[in-house]
Amino acid sequence: MPMWSLCAQFCSRVKLCKSINFIAWNNTCQINYAEPIGNMEGLVESIGNSFVAASTFQKELAGPCKGHDCKVSEVCIPKSPTYTCVPLLDYTTGTRIIVLVSQGKTTGQSSTYYHYESRLGVDGVKEPDNHFHTLDEFEPFWWVNLGQVYKIQKVVSTNRMDCNKCSGRLKKMVIHVGNSLDTCQMKLCGQFISPAETKQIIVTPCFALPQGQIVKLTSVNTAAPDFFHLSEVEVYGF
Prior knowledge:
By secondary structure, the protein is mainly beta. Helices cover 5% and strands 39% of the residues. The radius of gyration is 18 Å and the shape is globular.
């Protein structure tokens, strides 16, 4: 989908999308929930790729949604020559709000490289030499058991903080939610497609709000087996 279309759908009035990364080599966009205000050092410069903040978007990008009268609780969807207002998925349910539900929970992984255990993915520490790490496999995976069923709103993955030559091992990652580790019995949250950068923060929205107590991240390698490692995984749900 063209980037302007994504902006029109997700950035008009209720700004679910706060910034977008455009990956040049495969023409894909990553929708982010925040702008790096006060944290510009978090941006990673790379040839051919680009970053754009929602605060810089011109209103004309919204097309027919420019000047719409949708409610604050709705998102404007352009449908030429006019538009339609669609209810926004609530960020609250009663008095319960979306919170981090994964930190310190039970974890596991398909294999373990040296002392880099699965628990390091939810310990809240984002520092060099602190990450989970599997052996090289075609589809290595990592999972967290949240202890109870949640509706998952997004998963934020922080790539390894050290070893620049290692960060690109993450080329495609799929995230599933369910009540068992059988991927066939789980719901897809979303996926990441692009060689990752060192320290890169990958935000994967679960727009369908899949429900379950287990969140499973799988690194998919097609050419040859490879390692899977992330510094931290943060699951948000209600």
